[in-house]
């Protein structure tokens, strides 16, 4: 299964390869904005961080193109782009939440390691006193 947006963004689900080249004077269609949203969700769910980073770079390129004066956006394209912004925000929030949860887990691990080391040291000290 491939997701394609006129050679600007290609996601091959089997190979997980992402092409991130945008041609000059490229216009982003509603379907292509939808592909960005799909790709963001897909790579997040697959925990494919490399492809997510590549897709984010392509999204930045697409948004830069839209910001140019000569780019004329229809109401449907604007709505689709806003949907991508919403999905992007959800992805970023999920990544931040996961990062924070990982930090808490790492802190717990470090604390338990320190406690375990102290306990083991106490056990070793007690054994030498028993001799």
Question: How is this structure best described in words?
Answer:
The protein has 131 residues and is mainly α. The protein has three helices and three strands. A three-stranded antiparallel β-sheet has the order 1-2-3, with helices on one face. α1 runs parallel beside α3 (75-130). The longest helix is centred in the C-terminal third of the chain and has 56 residues, at 75-130. It is rod-shaped, with a radius of gyration of 24 Å.
Q: Would you tell me the overall average pLDDT?
A: 79
Helix count, per DSSP? Answer: 3
State the assembly state of the protein chains: single chain
Q: Count of DSSP E strands?
A: 3
- Percent range of helical residues: over 70%
- Strand coverage percent: 5-15%
Shape: rod-shaped
N to C succession of SSEs = EEEHHH
* Poorly predicted ranges: 1-10, 12-16
Strand order of the largest sheet: 1-2-3
User: Structural class, judged by helices and strands?
Assistant: mainly alpha
Write down the Rg.
24 Å
The main β sheet shows up as: 3 strands, antiparallel
N- and C-termini, Cα separation: 70 Å
């Amino acid at each position: 299964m491939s997701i394609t947006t006129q050679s600007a963004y290609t996601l091959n689900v089997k190979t997980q390869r992402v092409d991130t080249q945008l041609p000059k004077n490229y216009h982003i269609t509603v379907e292509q904005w939808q592909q960005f949203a799909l790709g963001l969700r897909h790579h997040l769910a697959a925990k494919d961080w490399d492809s997510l980073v590549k897709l984010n770079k392509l999204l930045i390129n697409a948004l830069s193109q839209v910001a140019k004066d000569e780019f004329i956006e229809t109401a449907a394209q604007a709505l689709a782009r806003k949907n991508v912004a919403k999905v992007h925000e959800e992805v970023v929030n999920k990544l931040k939440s996961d990062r924070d949860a990982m930090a808490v887990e790492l802190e717990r691990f470090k604390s338990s390691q320190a406690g375990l080391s102290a306990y083991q040291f106490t056990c070793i000290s007690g054994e030498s006193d028993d001799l």
